[in-house]
């Protein structure tokens, strides 16, 4: 049997005595008894990065996740009911958008590539420029962003409040039928925390010791990634493939998008962007904050010979390369092959994360 099949289902439902005890509610007939839940991860993940941190203000429950799952796919959230979160964060693309720039409800485009939603429970700064500090905070923005869902919260709340299906789901998740924006983003964030991906061939090889899981070429690519390529300096080998920092990898001598500086206002942050995870990178094209690269070959070409040494605040790890790693054609192909081994087929197909409607 394939390992992938054995590993299906990371999420266990843990019913604690407290959470399962019936709580007093205002009506005699209704009882609020949510099922506490945590995200379980393979032992090697817990070893490197610990279990997923949970927030005290938004404890995860099976009912909250179910509600968040439905909301994530619900077009009711957008002004003209044409797009949901999933319109720009597609499961088959590891919850990224294959379009260079996502299109909002009024046909307008932003100027940044959408970001994959993978293992974000360990993250504390969101967006390419880090302007949000929690998943809950992040989820407020697309609903009202004029180039995304272009809606307003009173309207969203009114629509949800008029639905008996949602009224029931909110009661089950939060013990109240009075919906507000905070409960909406709490539920969505709970669902997003379940989007964990640690089941790639690379994991079977590197963390689980299955020496046959990677081909010889992929193993050569891995050696470049952790060795001379220094990729792991920022895309850490700690199972998450990111150090969660904001860095300038030298794309432009004069960055058009200020990146982190947009948020902090500090010139020392100009050109710095969130170090993205590389998990499922084969399915999240195009690449970089502005989608400038269409293929992984383009990305590797960049790291090989096109690093802009005069870029402001070029990261301390980058000058070691000179203008690049000067990889041979064979080495480039090896590195690309390795990056493609980071795809988690279960994650991008699992019905547990698919459209529930
Ligand atoms: C119109 C397309 C679009 C829609 C709709 C949309 N997003 Fe996004 N999302 C983006 C783009 C583009 C970015 C990156 C924007 C930036 O950095 O300025 C992003 C970034 C994010 C991030 C940050 C990821 C990270 O690693 O920091 C999360 C989380 C996210 N979106 C969740 C959601 C949720 C939840 C919804 C629905 C409430 C949603 N998005 C709706 C396009 C979209
Ligand atoms: C100095 C830290 C650093 C090093 C070293 C580094 N990267 Fe990156 N990487 C980044 C940052 C930051 C971004 C996002 C840049 C942007 O969009 O402006 C990125 C983006 C990427 C992307 C695109 C991800 C996406 O979702 O669009 C790939 C693929 C990638 N790097 C692969 C590599 C490989 C392969 C190496 C080694 C040859 C490497 N990186 C070395 C920091 C680094």
Give a structural overview.
This protein has 357 residues and is mainly alpha-helical. It folds into 2 domains: 203 residues, Cytochrome c-like domain (Cytochrome Bc1 Complex, Chain D, domain 2), CATH 1.10.760.10; 141 residues, Cytochrome Bc1 Complex, Chain D, domain 2. The strands form 2 sheets. It has a two-stranded antiparallel ribbon with strand order 1-2. The longest helix has 13 residues. The structure holds heme C (2 copies). The site of one heme C has 24 residues, from helix 13.
Task: Tag the structure with descriptive keywords.
globular, binds heme C, mainly alpha, two-stranded antiparallel sheet, disordered N terminus, 357 residues, Cytochrome Bc1 Complex, Chain D, domain 2, two-stranded antiparallel ribbon
Named at the architecture level, the CATH assignment of the largest domain is Orthogonal Bundle
The overall average pLDDT, rounded, is: 91
Spans of 5+ residues with little confidence (pLDDT < 50)? Answer: 1-26
Kindly estimate the percentage of residues that lie in beta strands according to DSSP. Answer: under 5%
Q: What is the global morphology? A: globular
Query: Roughly what percent helix?
Result: 25-40%
Which superfamily, in CATH terms, is the homologous superfamily of the largest domain? Answer: Cytochrome c-like domain
């Amino acid at each position: 049997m394939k390992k992938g099949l054995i590993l299906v289902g990371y999420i266990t439902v843990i019913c604690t005595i407290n959470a399962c005890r019936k709580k007093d509610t205002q009506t005699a007939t209704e009882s609020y008894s949510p099922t506490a839940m945590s995200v379980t991860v393979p032992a090697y993940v817990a070893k490197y990065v610990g279990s997923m941190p949970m927030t005290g203000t938004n404890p995860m429950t099976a009912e909250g996740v179910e509600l968040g799952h439905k909301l994530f796919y619900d077009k009711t959230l957008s002004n003209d009911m044409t797009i949901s979160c999933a319109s720009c964060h597609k499961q088959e693309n590891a919850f990224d958008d294959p379009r260079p720039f996502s299109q909002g409800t009024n046909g307008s485009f932003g100027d940044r590539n959408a970001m994959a939603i993978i293992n974000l429970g360990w993250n504390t700064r969101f967006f390419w420029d880090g302007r949000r500090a929690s998943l809950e905070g992040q989820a407020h923005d697309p609903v009202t962003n004029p180039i995304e869902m272009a809606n307003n919260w009173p309207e969203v709340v009114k629509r949800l409040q008029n639905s008996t299906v949602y009224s029931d789901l909110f009661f089950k998740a939060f013990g109240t039928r009075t919906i507000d924006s905070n409960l909406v983003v709490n539920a969505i964030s709970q669902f997003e925390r379940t989007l964990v991906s640690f089941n790639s061939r690379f994991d079977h090889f590197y963390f689980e010791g299955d020496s046959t899981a990677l081909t010889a070429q992929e193993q050569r690519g891995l050696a470049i990634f952790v060795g001379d390529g220094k990729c792991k300096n920022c895309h850490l080998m700690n199972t998450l493939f990111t150090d969660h920092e904001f860095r300038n990898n030298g794309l432009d001598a004069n960055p058009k998008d200020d990146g982190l500086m947009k948020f902090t206002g500090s010139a020392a942050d100009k050109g710095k962007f969130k170090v993205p995870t590389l998990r499922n990178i084969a399915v999240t094209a195009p690449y970089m904050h502005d989608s400038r690269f269409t293929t992984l070959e383009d990305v590797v070409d960049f790291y090989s010979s096109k690093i802009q040494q005069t870029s402001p605040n070029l990261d301390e790890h980058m000058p070691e390369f000179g203008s690049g790693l000067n990889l041979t054609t064979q080495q480039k192909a090896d590195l690309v092959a390795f990056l493609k081994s980071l795809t988690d087929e279960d994650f991008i197909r699992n019905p547990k994360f698919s459209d529930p409607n």
